User: Which sequence fits this backbone?
C-alpha cells in the first residue's frame, strides 16, 4: 500500500539535503565519531534507500544500529521504528530519543518482530542478513508478516563476487573478516539455547540468491541491482574515490546488492 510522495526529491537532491542536515547537526551529533564514520561509509546507500521509500510513510529498520538511516528518513517525513539484537539505547540513544523513534530489542533470527501484522508500509534490512548465523527465511517471512499488502521490503547485502572479493581471492586472501579474531577464537552470543555470531560476515550473497530468498518468502521482486556505494569524501581526499568510480563502471563488480520486494495480496 502506497501513499502520495512524502517529498518530491530526486536521489541527488536527497544527498544534498543530507549534507545540509549533517552540517546543521540535525542528523547526528557532529562530535560522535561512530555516527560520523557511518555517515561517510553509508550515506550514498542511505539516500538510495530513502528515494526508494518516498511513497511509504511508516518504516521499520531491521538491524537499525545507531539509527542514522532512521534519522535521515525521519527528517524526510517518515514515521520510524527500529529493532536490533543489541540494546542500542544503552550505547547510542541520542538519535532515537531526539527524534522519538520507537526502538525494541529483537533477535530477528528467531524472535517474532514485536509489532502486529500488516503494520508497516515499508521494512528495510540494510547490511544485516550477512551477519546471520542461521537461515534467513524465518526472518524475511517475519518482515513480510508486519508489512501491509502492497508494502515494500528493502534488502541490501554485500556482493560476494564484487571486485574487492575477486581481487583478494586472486591474491590468496579470503573475502571474510580476520580469521583468528572473528572465526577461530570467536565467542558466540548465547540466546534462547542457540549460538549466534553477529560480529562477522557469516555469508555474503550473489544477486541470484537474493532473488531466490525474496521469491521463496513470497515477495514479488520489483527492482534488484548492483549498488554504487562510494565513501563520502571532501576536498583533496575526493581523489581517493577514483578507484571506486572505476570499479562501479562494471555493475557486477560493485560492493553491494540492493533489492526491493513487494508484499502482494
Assistant:
Amino acid at each position: 500500500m502506497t501513499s502520495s510522495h512524502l517529498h518530491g526529491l530526486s536521489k541527488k537532491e536527497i544527498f544534498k539535503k543530507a549534507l545540509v542536515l549533517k552540517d546543521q547537526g540535525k542528523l547526528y551529533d557532529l562530535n560522535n565519531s561512530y555516527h560520523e564514520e557511518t555517515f561517510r561509509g553509508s550515506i550514498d546507500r542511505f539516500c538510495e534507500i530513502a528515494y526508494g521509500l518516498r511513497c511509504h510513510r511508516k518504516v521499520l529498520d531491521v538491524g537499525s544500529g545507531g539509527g542514522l538511516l532512521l534519522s535521515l528518513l525521519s527528517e524526510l517525513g517518515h514515521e520510524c521504528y527500529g529493532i536490533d539484537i543489541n540494546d542500542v539505547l544503552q550505547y547510542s540513544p541520542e538519535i532515537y530519543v531526539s527524534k522519538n523513534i520507537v526502538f525494541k530489542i529483537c533477535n530477528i533470527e528467531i524472535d517474532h518482530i514485536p509489532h502486529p501484522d500488516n503494520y508497516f508500509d515499508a521494512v528495510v534490512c540494510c547490511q544485516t542478513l550477512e551477519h546471520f548465523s542461521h537461515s534467513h527465511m524465518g526472518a524475511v517471512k517475519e518482515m513480510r508478516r508486519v508489512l501491509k499488502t502492497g508494502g515494500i521490503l528493502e534488502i541490501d547485502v554485500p556482493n560476494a563476487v564484487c571486485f574487492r572479493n575477486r581481487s583478494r581471492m586472486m591474491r590468496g586472501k579470503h573475502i571474510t573478516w580476520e580469521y583468528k579474531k572473528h572465526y577461530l577464537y570467536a565467542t558466540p552470543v548465547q540466546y534462547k539455547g542457540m549460538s549466534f555470531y553477529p560480529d562477522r560476515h557469516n555469508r555474503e550473497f550473489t544477486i541470484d540468491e537474493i532473488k531466490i530468498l525474496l521469491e521463496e518468502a513470497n515477495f514479488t521482486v520489483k527492482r534488484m541491482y548492483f549498488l554504487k556505494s562510494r565513501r563520502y569524501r571532501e576536498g583533496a581526499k575526493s581523489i581517493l574515490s577514483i578507484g571506486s568510480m572505476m570499479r562501479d563502471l562494471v555493475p557486477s563488480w560493485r560492493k553491494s546488492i540492493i533489492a526491493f520486494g513487494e508484499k502482494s495480496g
In short: Strands lie at 58-62, 79-84, 102-105, 120-126, 147-158, 189-191, 194-196, 220-227, 256-262. The mean pLDDT is 93. The chain has one domain: 11-262.
